[in-house]
Amino acid sequence: MSSTFDQLDVVSIDFLFLGIIVGGLFVAYWSLVHLLVTWNPYHRPIMPVVMSLLILSIPVLMLIIESLSNPSELNLGQVLELLFMLLGMGVFTLLAFTPLIFLFVTIQMLKITFESKPDDPLMAMLED
Amino acid sequence: MISWGMQAILGWTLLLAALSLQRMGPAFKRSRFSLPIAALGLALMIFIPETKQYFEGGSGVCQYHYCDNDIRALFLDFMLETVVWMTLAVLGVMLILNSSNLYEKSKPLVSTLGWILVISSWYVISQMRLIDYLITNPENLIWLLFVVIGVLFTLFFYYFIIRSAERSTPRENKVSPLDERERKLVTEIIRRNLRGE
């Protein structure tokens, strides 16, 4: 498994596919956790939960299909390894590129620091 | 024994759960469990166990990435640096927002302190090994692009799934409009809230 990830070339179809799978899994995992934690009688979460589970099962299905040629190699450790690698890459990508978002926030802070208070049209309307 | 990788994923799951809980309910009464759950999640991501050595007893040496000691050290460095810069950044941004003259009178001293924290967090970011690696290898931005495509693609699917779930919900009858007394009452409440009375 480790050699499979190490052999990937940047800007290849495999790399693109892996990136898309990582992004998809990241959203599916986050959504699943969110839907389960915020479960309430006014929600209709069954369809999104089923979709999350389907997306999360894609890599495991791929591993099972791959192992059909060599069934002795498939074990729980490999499944956990695959999920760990894909989810870990998602978390790592999010955290590694967060400084880009912080750059945007810093520019906003600069604007807020030097901007003066605008006239509030709603308050003026109330006075009228 | 749980491996460090599995513990880190569990910690990440608790952080996501805490964020979701924190967004529940009205703004003045958020879930009281979100903060302790977030703290537990963060602790699980930072205080990770070491892998068993070859001479230790047990079920054998783990050869997967999620119990590799070198990756564990890289992960721990990255997490500690991330926690430090994010804490500085959040505190700095809060101070700058509180001291701006958008809501109240300007407070230059608090604003200066906020900017010191923001600049400190940028200093920590500039010292991170990973950021150095990302800057010196710009092709990593292509990786980010692919991940963003995956995220957008999945969100697009969720949009259609949630829309169809919402549409299948039976609609309630329209309520009658406010009468004169109710309209005056609502106007008065909004006026008092806007004036801070």
Salient structural properties:
heterodimer; A: 128 residues; 6 helices; 0% strand; elongated; B: mainly alpha; 3 domains; 7 helices; extended
Provide the domain count of chain A: 1
Question: Unreliable runs of chain B, pLDDT <50, ≥5 residues?
Answer: none
Task: Work out the oligomeric state of the chains in this entry.
Answer: heterodimer
CA-CA gap between termini of chain B? 58 Å
Low-confidence stretches of chain A: none
Global morphology of chain A: elongated
Short summary of the structure?
The complex is a heterodimer of chains A (128) and B (197). Chain A is mostly helical and 128 residues long. Chain A is built from 6 helices and no strands.
Topology summary:
The complex is a heterodimer of chains A (128) and B (197).
Chain A: H1 2-6, H2 13-37, H3 46-67, H4 76-96, H5 98-114, H6 121-127
Chain B: H1 4-22, H2 34-46, H3 69-99, H4 108-127, H5 129-136, H6 140-167, H7 180-195
Describe this structure in words.
The complex is a heterodimer of chains A (128) and B (197). Chain A has 128 residues and is mainly alpha-helical. Chain A has one domain (2-97). Chain A contains 6 helices and no strands. Chain A has helices spanning 2-6, 13-37, 46-67, 76-96, 98-114, 121-127. The longest helix of chain A has 25 residues, at 13-37. Chain B is built from 7 helices and no strands. The model of chain B has no long low-confidence stretch (mean pLDDT 84). With 197 residues, chain B is an all-alpha fold. Chain B has 3 domains: 1-67, no CATH class; 69-137; 138-168. Chain B has helices at residues 4-22, 34-46, 69-99, 108-127, 129-136, 140-167, 180-195. At the A-B interface, helix 2, helix 3, helix 4, helix 5 and helix 6 of A face helix 1, helix 3, helix 4, helix 5 and helix 6 of B.
